[in-house]
Amino acid sequence: MIRDLGMACKEWGFFMVINHGVPESLMSMMEAGTRDFFDLPEDEKRKYEGKGVVDSVRYGTSFGGGTGRGHTFFWRDFVKALVRPQFHSPSKPEGFSDLLAEYCEKMLDMGKVLLKGISQSLRLDIEHINKIMDIESSLQLWAANRYPPCPDPESVMGIPAHTDYGLLTFLTQQGADGLEIFHQDKWVEVRPIKGAILVNTCDHIEVNYPNNNGREVKSILHRVQVNTEKTRISIVSSIGPSPDTFVRPIEELPEEGEEVAKYMGMKYREYFDLMYDPQAIREVMP
Question: SS3 for 35?
Answer without folding.
Answer: helix
